[in-house]
Design a protein that fits this description.
With 298 residues, the protein is mainly alpha-helical. The protein has one domain (45-98, 112-282). The protein is built from 13 helices and two strands. It has a two-stranded antiparallel sheet with strand order 1-2. Helix 1 (5-25) crosses helix 13, helix 6 (91-107) packs antiparallel against helix 7 and helix 12 (234-246) packs across helix 13 (262-284). The two termini are 33 Å apart. Residues 53-278 form the ER-bound oxygenase mpaB/mpaB'/Rubber oxygenase catalytic domain. GO terms for molecular function: oxidoreductase activity. Pfam families: MPAB_Lcp_cat (PF09995).
């Protein structure tokens, strides 16, 4: 018998979800997901912690892209990324490693979370060099780690509050920053911020060190104009990228040569952002078929 339209749509949704999950988590994503969620043992974060709410939502796609753009404004952090990360040669591999790290530390067992942190710290010890301006850098430098951390926390939280299915209240936002401080401290960040007031103050402290470099602008062009996505995904990706740029502070735009169009961003771009995040959330929460690509059990 021919499949019903609803059944066909469900099947298509599952296939899209599986394809998206493979891109984000890698070919062994299902095995990693099973270990992360089903392995018994204590976790760093209980099921009711706000970090789980934020990191399980599709708004992380916008937040992750915003974080990369914001992080690129520190010349030493960007020099390390340009020389050592392989983001141009293996962008999907880098995304998969990052998404796995976030999933393991947020949802996995405490022992697996610590092992993931230890692995990152080993890599950081090998990443060092000289930036374009002659200054030396070390990926394990607590000050640089602090910048990467606050840029991530600010981006993930702001984009969740804008596009997340369940925005947090004031106490929830502070609790999320505190949850993320647990991971930041484990990675080597000294005294990471533990509420939004401290997060805002720390971002301001870094601002005198931030400016655009050729490497940062090249990374922005790669991420926004030449993304490694199939042609059919270019329009949805453009909506995602526009939402990420629109959520950057105005002071971060010019160094990266990004436009600032407040009226358009408050209307068309925001609507487009809500549309693409809602579509991603719909795909990510496909009915059970053995391949639904949710980062959490929700």
């Amino acid at each position: 018998m021919p499949e019903s339209p609803r059944g066909a749509l469900t099947l298509l949704r599952q296939r899209w979800g599986a394809a998206l999950f493979e891109r984000v988590a890698g070919a062994d994503g299902p095995e990693k997901r099973t270990r992360i969620h089903d392995l018994p043992g204590p976790r760093w974060f209980a099921e009711d912690r706000f970090i789980r709410t934020v990191h399980a939502d599709a708004a992380m796609f916008v937040g992750g892209l915003r974080a990369l753009l914001l992080q690129s404004l520190h010349p030493l952090a960007m020099a390390a990324v340009a020389a050592h990360s392989g983001y141009r040669g293996d962008p999907w591999g880098r995304l998969q490693r990052t998404s796995t790290f976030l999933a393991v530390t947020t949802f996995g067992t405490a022992s697996d979370a610590q092992a993931a942190v230890n692995a990152v710290r080993r890599v950081h010890r090998q990443v060092r060099g000289v930036a374009r301006d002659g200054r030396t850098y070390r990926a394990g430098d607590p000050h640089l780690l602090g910048w990467v951390h606050v840029a991530e926390v600010d981006s993930f939280l702001r984009c969740h509050q804008r596009y997340g299915a369940a925005p947090l209240d004031d106490d929830g936002c502070d609790a999320y920053v505190a949850d993320m401080a647990r991971i930041g401290a484990a990675l080597g960040v000294v005294d990471p911020p533990r509420d939004r007031a401290e997060l805002t103050a720390r971002l301001e402290d870094y601002r005198p060190e931030l400016h655009g470099t050729p490497e940062a602008r090249e990374a922005a062009r790669f991420l926004l104009l030449n993304p490694p996505v199939p042609l059919v995904a270019r329009v949805p990706y453009a909506a995602l990228a526009s939402a990420a740029v629109a959520d950057l502070p105005a002071w971060a735009r010019w160094p990266l040569r990004l436009p600032y169009l407040p009226v358009t961003e408050a209307t068309a771009v925001r609507l487009g952002g809500h549309g693409i995040v809602s579509a991603l959330r719909w795909v990510m929460t496909a009915p059970a078929s053995g391949s639904q690509p949710t980062p959490s059990k929700s």
